[in-house]
Amino acid sequence: MADQFIVERTFYDITDTVGLSANETKTYDASGRAQDGNNYMTPNTVTSSTTNGAVAREVTSIEIIPPQDSNGNYEDLREVKLVLDNKDYGHYITLPGTGSHLMTPLRTQLRGSATFRIRLGEPLWRVLLGPLGRGGGASSNVPLLASAPKYNRELGITVSSRFGVTGAGSGGFRIIVKGYEYTEAALAYLQQFWRNQVSLQTMRRTLTGQPALSFTYPAPSQLSISTWPGFPGGTEQGSIKINPYFHFALNAQATSPNLPYALTTFPSLGGANGNVEDLQQNLGLEFNLNNDALWVRAWGVRGVPLPPGQTGAPGTPGLNLSRAGWLINGDEIPEGTGRNGIFVTQGVNPLAFGQAAPYVNEPNTFIPVPQFPGELLVYKDNAVPFIADNGSPTPAYQVAVAVIGVLVEQP
Description:
The model has no long low-confidence stretch (mean pLDDT 94). Helix content is 5%, strand content 32%. The chain folds into 2 domains: 9-188 and 223-230, no CATH class; 241-409, Jelly Rolls (Sandwich). The longest helix is centred in the middle third of the chain and has 7 residues, at 184-190. By secondary structure, it is mainly beta. It contains 4 helices and 23 strands. The strands form 6 sheets. Strands 13, 14, 16, 17, 18 and 22 form a 6-stranded antiparallel β-sheet that branches. The two termini are 41 Å apart.
């Protein structure tokens, strides 16, 4: 019998001490068992993510302890993805597991408050009821705010590496998934506070005569365990889909001197074939001719070393990196009186995230992806983040860019 307490719980906890070969992908099922036959569920934690249909679950955080080699170098745990109810969720959340540019570290290794969380989305109960749980929650844009991943049957994890993982210096790597669960009675109570209307606008869009993002979300008529995946963050949504957006990209090619390097393969956005490594690292948003939108909440840029096993490792993280910004409808944003963008170097970087060093001399400590320094709603626009050098090329794979937001897909 599930209890009715609103408390963050651990749904999944794996520790992999075997590692990965170069170009290997490994998937762990609901019980932590991978295709190699080993069970990787961390001892004395949970035994399975399966709900048996008794509760609905909402994933609000993933914490990753990254692998290190015997010399203490962070290894290439290239991508980490959720599998919700046997469906790959990588289109919405693809996280780096490499320590240099980790987006979701263990909360006790975050620089700042020990209770700070990097949330994949606000929990439904907090959005609807407010922080004290006594009403006073959101009355508008509820579907955008309550977009954390949701499942009602089981959860798994997929990881991949390009250059291999030994974990020899760290005892492997660990991935912990946490969130909240709801009984049928809890969902029935929350039903009365749910609102479907969305209307989001920014000052810049108002001043330039661009439309607000406005629609009525087609939520199921009842909020229940069986309909749970049909709500924002779920894998069975209707004609309009709302999900969290957690993605990163590495510059897969060297930059061209003084020119913006778009983290996309789309030529219409200033990108080129080979600019990023794969589809999940394509940060280009071709939204000018459709109704999709991305509400950008956080954005980070940093130089990174080449991982052990890659030719030339570790290289020089962020060599010649000079500035970063966004290309929006062809314009470099923010515009400046000298060069456009936000000025970043390996020593002074207001957009830094991931490993705290070299900005702060604290080993195994991490900086969260900074909140977007302003407001950005990409809707009826073409947009992509860019980096640029100081006139000499930045080598391939030496810069990481992270984007966090809420993605809306509309017909």
